[in-house]
Design brief:
By secondary structure, the protein is α/β, with parallel strands linked by helices. The protein has 13 helices and twelve strands.
Length: 378
């Protein structure tokens, strides 16, 4: 199998598995227990928190562990809005956020908040000037992702942060960590997910800058500084911290490796007639290329490549069951037929040149066959 869907999830790094193994096979203590086994579990969690803090340039007390980026984003959006309700009722986000951010904002609207969804340009960029223009005295929260999960466009996070002055600024960095430099000091709230960086599924991070108001979503315990109740996933937390440590340690080498693989893949795909690359030509993450194939349906391409042993996707795995054209690509101005013909290829440092070459041997054949079927059906 050739796995080119690393933006959806990644394989577990061997070093991460080794770090998690003692927690999975040996210790069983609850970190909240007072006995020796509980104290050892607590130390594992706090050591992991320290590791994450160092990687992000944060204080350990600013690091919360969650069940993943979806929970972190929900907590950031809903928790900050609830805590700041007495100061204002206006929230700003972009039209191309992950569904868990957009749906969290839609929920706020049902609670009486006002939400501004900023447009993006043809390359998927949010204009910081548009953020400044949208700001009002009642704006309490701005949420714009660091790297778009469908097209890989890298947002001008620091400029947006400056434009959002006076409001809490949140960024979803799930697709940024391990691909581009991430500094938590560029925001107030920052979201990460372990399984996007060769860590385990079901664990994530929300960094909460000291002094940032945030009401909990989960209550019933004092864990995570009383901001996220529930027994900690010790093995997952250890794996998350190790994955982030490795991602930071190997960032430059891995980024160069992924960029070379991505460019090799993109060059081959662009040789197929009727192919359009979506996203920014320069401000882009190194692991991802999104293309639209003329006169074919993206879902048909995905299923046909799957039959060839090649895993790709059409965009966010959390929206993969939808039959509607990608809202991200539609927000970027693509016509519905181009958006429906889009396919996302994403590599990792574990991807090989041989796998790219094999994929490039299969994709043109699949596109040609699907176009013939489409022509006949018309």
């Amino acid at each position: 199998m050739i796995y080119l869907d690393n933006a959806a999830s990644t394989k577990l790094h061997p070093e991460v598995l080794a770090a998690m193994r003692p927690c999975l096979e040996g210790e069983s203590g609850n970190p909240s227990s007072l006995h020796a086994a509980g104290r050892r579990a607590r130390k594992a969690v706090e050591d992991a928190r320290e590791t994450v803090a160092v990687c992000l340039g944060a204080d350990p007390k600013e690091v919360l562990f969650t069940s993943g980026a979806t929970e972190s984003n929900n907590l950031a959006i809903s928790g900050a809005a609830a805590a700041l309700r007495t100061r204002g009722d206006h929230v700003i986000t972009s039209a191309i956020e992950h569904p868990c951010v957009l749906e969290s904002c839609a929920r706020l609207e049902k609670q009486g908040f006002r939400v501004t969804r900023l447009p993006v340009d043809r390359q998927g960029l949010v204009d910081p000037a548009a953020v400044s223009k949208a700001m009002t005295p009642s704006t309490i929260l701005v949420s714009v992702m660091w790297v778009n999960n469908e097209v890989g466009t890298v947002q001008p996070v620091r400029e947006i942060r400056d434009a959002a002055k006076g409001a809490v600024f949140h960024t979803d960095a799930a697709q940024a960590a391990g691909k581009v430099p991430v500094d938590a000091r560029a925001c107030d709230l920052l979201t990460l997910s372990a399984h996007k960086i060769h860590g385990p599924k079901g664990v994530g991070v929300l960094r909460v800058r000291k002094g940032t108001p945030l009401d909990p979503l989960l209550v019933g315990g004092g864990q995570e500084f009383e901001r996220r109740a529930g027994t900690e996933n010790v093995a997952g937390i250890v794996g998350c911290a190790e994955a982030l440590r490795i991602a930071c340690r190997d960032l430059d080498a891995n980024a160069r490796r992924m960029e070379a693989l991505r460019d090799r893949l993109q060059a081959g795909l662009e040789r197929i007639p009727g192919t359009r690359v979506n996203g920014h030509a320069e401000r882009r993450a190194p692991h991802l290329v999104n293309v639209s194939f003329e006169a074919v349906d993206g879902e048909a391409v995905i299923l046909s490549l799957d039959a060839e042993g090649i895993c790709v996707s059409s965009g966010s795995a959390c929206a993969s069951m939808s039959l509607e054209p990608s809202p991200v690509l539609r927000a970027m101005g693509l016509p519905a037929d181009e958006a429906r013909g889009s396919v996302r290829f994403s590599v990792s440092p574990f991807t090989t040149d041989a796998e790219i070459d094999r994929a490039l041997g299969a994709v043109p054949r699949v596109i040609e066959r699907l176009r013939k079927i489409s022509a006949v059906s018309r």
